[in-house]
UniProtKB/TrEMBL annotation:
Residues 4-153 form the Peptide methionine sulphoxide reductase MsrA domain. Keywords: Oxidoreductase. This is Peptide methionine sulfoxide reductase MsrA. NCBIfam families: msrA. Signal peptide: none annotated.
């Protein structure tokens, strides 16, 4: 099994796209890239810990590749917005691909360059690519949020869903 960590705004919205894919062993909401051990949701939201909301994916590379995960990742975010995602603003919502080894690093860089070269977005692709740091699980109420709170999830996901439909439908491919 291998690990991937992606940040793309609110972690509630980042679980569902990966959750039921063949080859995904597990996926968790959590916090990474900060300076406090074991941060809480309240602490991260206060912008005092330096953490970014993210998802950790444990996957079987024989069934789904890191490159496949990146393709899905790009289609969940606004890669031109470095200061948050959709209604979620601030450093704790910044888009980041965290890598665990040089192969993941190079794959992420190539994927980012390929996306920029498509011309799909007129603005530069600003998603950060950084070395993985300790990942701290979010509290239980944040795990599988979309399943536990479908109405609230739909409300929180509406702006993201509209952007994704506008930028990733087949007419733009």
């Amino acid at each position: 099994m291998e690990r991937a960590i992606f940040a793309g705004g609110c972690f509630w919205c980042m679980i569902q796209p990966f959750d039921e894919l063949d080859g995904i062993e597990s996926i968790f909401s959590g916090y990474t890239a900060g300076h406090t051990e074991n941060p809480t949701y309240k602490e991260v939201k206060s912008h005092q810990t330096g953490h970014t909301e993210a998802v950790e994916i444990i996957f079987d590379p024989e069934k789904i590749s890191f490159d496949d995960l990146l393709t899905i990742y790009w289609q969940q975010t606004d890669p031109t917005d470095a200061f948050g995602q959709f209604e979620d603003r601030g450093d704790n919502y910044r888009p980041v691909i965290f890598y665990f080894n040089e192969e993941q690093h190079q794959t992420a860089l190539a994927s980012k360059a390929a996306l920029q070269a498509t011309g799909r977005f007129t603005e530069p692709i600003v998603t950060a690519i950084e070395p993985a740091q300790p990942f701290y699980l979010a509290e239980e109420e944040h795990q599988e949020y979309y399943k536990k709170n479908p109405e609230n999830f739909a409300r929180n996901h509406a702006r993201r869903a509209a952007f994704l439909a506008d930028h990733w439908d087949q007419d733009h491919a």
